[in-house]
Amino acid sequence: MDMRILGRLTAADALPFYSWVAVGGAIVTLLGLLTIVGTITVLGKWRYVWTEWMTSLDHKRIGILYVILALVMLVRGFVDAIMMRAQQAVALNSNGYLPAQHFDQIFSSHGTIMIFFMAMPFLTGLINIVVPQQIGARDVAFPFMNSVSLWLTAAGAGLVLISLVVGRFSTAGWTGYPPYSGLQYNPGVGVDYWIWAIQVSGIGTTLSGINFIVTILKRRAPGMKLMRMPLFCWTTLATSILMIFAFPALTVTTALLALDRIFGMHFFTNADGGNLMNYINLFWIWGHPEVYILILPAFGIYSSVVSTFAAKRLFGYKSLVYATMAIALLSFTVWLHHFFTMGAGAGVNAFFGIATMVIAVPTGVKVFDWLMTLFRGRITFHPSMLWALGFIVTFVIGGMTGVLLALPPADYLMHNSTFLVAHFHNMLIPGALFGYLAGYMFWFPKAFGFTLSERWGKRAFWCWIIGFYIAFMPLYVLGFMGMARRMERYEVAAWQPLLVIAALGAVVILAGITCLVIQLVVSIRDREHNRDLTGDPWDGRTLEWLTASPPAPYNFAILPQVRDIDALHDMKRHGSAHIRPKRYHDILLPQNTGAGVLIGGFAFYFGFAAVWHIWWAAAATLLGILLTAAARSFRDKTEICIPASEVQQIENRHFRNLAREGAV
Ligand code: HEM
Ligand SMILES: [Cu+2]
């Protein structure tokens, strides 16, 4: 152990002078930070940002912050992707433009960012914004814990970003397999950044899982039986259950790896009594459920979108619920398909191969139900609907390549090839990201009170889907041609044309990302024109469309009474959607607190200190977290009261808007 004041942090090897590309990345990262801080300062908005957003315990605000984090990290993760595509397009018999070590950092940070800091915050953000409203609640069960989760996630993302400026990131891939991630082969700080970024954000995710489970079980409006919940609430429940069972496994795995690295323990070194296969088993006990944590919420979003824009009740509601829960359960039974080559017997491999294929059954049920919902529906081609349609077609292709990989003998040939890279992008881009983007365009007006430009949304969709096919279909072929994943240079001339095509596909996706940015900018510019005063721009079917857009801090002045699956649709049919109560009551809401931000800040410094072995600082920050949590728990007054008169004023405004639009 290092006992110097700054641990192993010395300016000489901390700064990224090993490659000009890395220096460029560091500068861009710093400029990005400066731009954000500078803009808020110049506009004089720090007070507003702090009191209205950073310290807010309102689930909708927390959700929006999560989504902003996800979109920023999507751009960062995509920059990594396009750099890799550019490198592989030119690296035939040459070193390309990226030093090997740097290329390795890029695929590691790309995978890590996309999974942990793009997809996870995106889905957590959407759940936060939508689920409490869909179940007719005023907030999540534990609003303060919600804020802690957000800031722990942000702290983890911060650690990945800072690794580009001070030190380096891991070169061991997003999975961090030993022995390469062990001290012997990877003595620098890269793997430690990876470990602590995951550790800090992973605890936030576990807390989120607890929060959503309790929220859904305890906070439903009167009459909202479990079997009347919108599908998105069901998939949230399933995802949250997976979060609380799977993430602790990851926490333990990376903690053991940290012990190996810091204290020379031997959990995962094959010498001295350890076994690296323990790591791989533990990692995928988290890792396989993780892909369903990413995909199930998207399934819920597609269910909402498809039934809304087909103007029909969801076909086979019950079968969708059972299929969701079956997928959640089965996801824990297949982890071994990630290492068929471990050397287990044929019987073990056959079991896990078949278990994997069984998941195709409930998934097929879902696809069937969505198609039947579309059948004879009055279809509106809103961009969200396009994402859903693009998903159905593309996801089925990815599913079939997955069944192929589930055959142990086939997997022996393909598992480390670009075929695998094509397969999992084929699942995760349509199966997760398209769903989040569909949800983003669907619920944006709910969060902000105006709709997003449909024209730019459609352009974004077409660029993404076309770009996806051009970028990833060649990788299937390259896999058959024997190209391994994670190659920074190669000598096989026949691969190059396909890699160039794949790079062009990434450029088309870049156009898609650009469209997303333009969409946001023009929609904000035209917001008065796109204003939605009813709170229900798509003739929605579920309760979130009953609230105003943006909703009052308390969502519902009077908790709604639920009598049907599509609660709002049912109310509209009976003319009972917007009935004024005789009188309003005082409403208690959680009071803002800076404690969540403080805990996130401490966690960031804890991670940084642990990476650099600055042990006194690590101890101090842990103490800081404990004291902050203790101080917060001693506070008696954690709620504010919105008096009935103020509720009435807010509701009057909403009813005036509804009247103006002819909705009441
Ligand atoms: C947006 C377009 C995307 C492009 C162009 C892209 C491209 C790439 C490339 C070139 C690689 C390295 C392939 C190799 O090993 O040779 C890669 C790896 C990977 N990508 Fe993506 N990607 C994209 C989106 C995503 C998304 C949305 C996710 C997850 C939600 C994701 C997750 C991963 C993971 C986990 C790896 C493996 C990293 C590793 O090898 O450790 N990617 N991607
Ligand atoms: Cu798996």
Keywords:
664 residues; mainly alpha; 21 helices; binds protoporphyrin IX containing FE
Q: Describe it for me?
A:
The chain has a two-stranded antiparallel sheet. With 664 residues, it is mainly alpha-helical. The protein is globular. The chain has 21 helices and 2 strands.
Q: Point out poorly predicted stretches.
A: none
Rg, rounded, reads 25 Å
Strand content is under 5%
Q: Taking strands numbered 1, 2, ... along the chain, how are they ordered across the largest sheet? A: 1-2
Q: What best-fitting shape do the alpha-carbon axes yield?
A: globular
What structural class do helix, strand and pairing data support?
Answer: mainly alpha
Query: Using DSSP, what is the number of strands?
Result: 2
Q: Estimate percent helicity.
A: 55-70%
Number of helical stretches of at least 4 residues: 21
C-alpha termini separation: 70 Å
Largest sheet: 2 strands, antiparallel
The bound ligands are: protoporphyrin IX containing FE, copper (II) ion
Rounded mean pLDDT score = 96
State the gist of this model.
With 664 residues, the protein is mainly α.
Task: List the SSEs and their pairings.
Elements: H1 11-14, H2 20-42, H3 46-54, H4 59-90, H5 100-134, H6 143-162, H7 190-218, H8 231-263, H9 276-309, H10 317-330, H11 346-358, H12 360-374, H13 383-405, H14 408-414, H15 418-448, H16 454-480, H17 496-525, H18 567-573, E1 587-590, H19 595-611, H20 615-633, E2 639-642, H21 644-660
Bound molecules: protoporphyrin IX containing FE and copper (II) ion (CU).
